[in-house]
Amino acid sequence: MFHVKRDGDAGVPGADDSPPEAPDVASRLFGATVDRAEAYCASLATDGVVLGLIGPREVPRLWERHILNCAVIGEAMPPSVSVVDIGSGAGLPGIPLALARPDLRITLVEPLLRRSDFLQRIVDELELDVRVIRGRAEEKSIRGEVGGADVVTSRAVAPLERLTKWSAPLIADGGRLIAIKGSSAEEEIARDGDAARRLGIVDLHVKQCGVEALEVPTTVVVGTKRGTSGASKRRAGASKRKR
């Protein structure tokens, strides 16, 4: 059993909260990595609360509302693709996704130091093949480092228009935007769809993930990055110069 260490949290409100027991469906979704998922849950229930990443009232529903809710979005992703989780925060959805889909190449992007430090410690202690990068998705340096991803994902980061503005430059032509949304998903597409299309994200639609596994499926907005003839020509020209 993996154990995520806590750093001197005795006596801190929320530090002694016991993590909820993993439901039966966790074994089905995580398989061989379910012990690591349990360790991650324990860390969210302790350090996550102390650091303000998770509210104390969320502890009893960490599995259903947070961990499993994020793990199932892998249904919308092809095998062995690169995934960038922007504004990762407590590692949601990136860490549950890495545990449920170890074939994915995942990068967590988080601007705040205490959160990025937490994420790096979790990644190290759970021995995950996941990169953690501190920064904002809209920064030029971040675009240079993680741009060209097959999938950019996020959870509770921003309304769709702003989210698309940050995500689109990171997505390869033909790649996907997969954003976890709630009941407002259809409304956001209706409101922000034109802006998203101007930014190169087309075919926006709502998908329900985890229909057969979860009592309440996860709602995601999915869109595709439209390729441009100019971009294709530039790539072709660069290829010729290399030869």
From TrEMBL:
The keyword Nuclease does not apply. Transmembrane segments: none annotated. S-adenosyl-L-methionine binds at residues 87, 92, 137-138, 155. It is found in: Cytoplasm. It holds the Pfam family GidB. Residues 1-24 are annotated as: Disordered. GO terms for molecular function: methyltransferase activity. InterPro entries: rRNA_ssu_MeTfrase_G, SAM-dependent_MTases_sf. Keywords: Cytoplasm, Methyltransferase, rRNA processing, S-adenosyl-L-methionine, Transferase. Its EC number is 2.1.1.-. It is an enzyme of class 2 (transferase). One of its GO terms (biological process) is methylation. Belongs to the methyltransferase superfamily. RNA methyltransferase RsmG family. Specifically methylates the N7 position of a guanine in 16S rRNA. PANTHER family: S-ADENOSYL-L-METHIONINE-DEPENDENT METHYLTRANSFERASES SUPERFAMILY PROTEIN. This is Ribosomal RNA small subunit methyltransferase G. The gene is rsmG.
